[in-house]
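User: Please go through the entry that follows and flag anything odd:
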Amino acid sequence: MAKIILFADPSFNGQYVELTAGSDNLSAQGMNNVVSSIKVEGAPWIVYHEEKYMGVSYLLKPGDYPNWTAWGGEGDKISSVKPAPSITLYADPNFTGKKVQLTSGCLFLGDLGMNDVVSSIIVNEGLWEIYDDLYYKGVKYTLSPGQYKDWNAWGGQGDKLSSVKPVSAIILFADPSFNGQNVELTAGSDNLGAQGMNNVVSSIKVEGAP
């Protein structure tokens, strides 16, 4: 499970909060613009200067960040955080053997030494598409967050995987600046009236793959 621990003081001291889900405004946790050290566990997180996942962002891999210089920040200016889309690929069943963790797409797993050897997968965050051919071609499987102990678990045909990518998502908001009614889509919609969003979209976020 992806977890982030935010501390108000350097070196993991002072007030702190643990999160396993995103927060679009750390004021709700009493931690807005006071974060001075961070621990990331399980999977990567993205931290943002501004609320609602806006402004300068930093991708933090699992590890300890004893002060803001450790993540390349500019002081303790952090206002929102969320888990990054991430997937962990294992060469052997039951999450053993060589592994690689990705937060973005890979056109050819051979570049990582993992072509046609993936035997188990953990999807930490987001929806991911995995393909049995390079360049996102061939048979495709869409995996939601969870553990897949062997290729039978995702309906595969052996460990034949050559490319992976996160599924793109678009978030539509009824009001400017990402406020008001909203809906998140990972597939096309030929009539936004079905989502109650026809002719009312005033701001948009696009996440994952373009």
Remarks:
- The chain has a mean pLDDT of 92.
- The chain has three domains: 3-83, 86-166, 169-207.
- The radius of gyration is 19 Å.
- The first strand starts at residue 3 and ends at 9.
